[in-house]
Amino acid sequence: MKSKKKKKESKTEPKLKILAVGDLHGDTRQATRLAERAVKEKVDVVILSGDITFADQSLDYLIGPFAKRKLKTLFIPGNHETFATANFLEEMYQPYAENIHAKGQKIKDVGLFAVGGANVGLFQLSEDEIYKKLKKGFSKIKDARKKLMITHVHPSGSLMGKLAMFVPGSDGVKKAIDKLHPDIAICSHAHEAEGIEEKIGKTKVINVGKKGKIIEI
Prior knowledge:
With 217 residues, the chain is α/β, with parallel strands linked by helices. It has a single domain (17-216), classed as Purple Acid Phosphatase, chain A, domain 2. The protein has helices at 28-41, 64-68, 83-92, 127-139, 159-163, 171-180; strands at 17-21, 45-49, 73-76, 97-99, 104-107, 110-115, 146-151, 184-187, 197-200, 203-207, 213-216. The strands form 2 sheets. It has a 6-stranded mixed beta sheet with strand order 5-6-7-8-10-9. It has a 5-stranded mixed beta sheet with strand order 4-3-2-1-11, covered by helices on one side. The longest helix is centred in the N-terminal third of the chain and has 14 residues, at 28-41.
């Protein structure tokens, strides 16, 4: 009598598909191009990692192109917009846009946590504040299958920090990577380092920049 071998069922967790963008600096045409790309690529969520505006001006049509296409859009302020402006943009484009500064959220069992602002500029945070706010967001998603950290500023001691001509890396961000061990950390801020990917410990750090990057996790 032939024995029937049971086939092993392979269960693969659905990946979260993200379009991550930083440093739009008021470029409404690029915002529209990226929104069209997000629809074409069928992403689950768009993430804007700060400096959406230029010096807290030109607010129009930056979040709008994503909201118009009903794309879930998570964003943080950079060093070019105030936290009040970020809250205003969230209110304007609900329910599609959300400011996730100092928050944690799960999508498809991927935990996202973030901090906006930077360690330089008019709207800066101290290194201690940066770390504590990241830790606060992390506490909401610490049991997630994968973890994605979102900041505007890049970590200190990184390759992208060495490429940056005018903006220093953040010790608070570096501490969060060392202590919280996210699978992926995305940032922008250092324009010269756009597109750079590097490993810090077990964390892949990506400077997503204005062109945007598709990330699956």
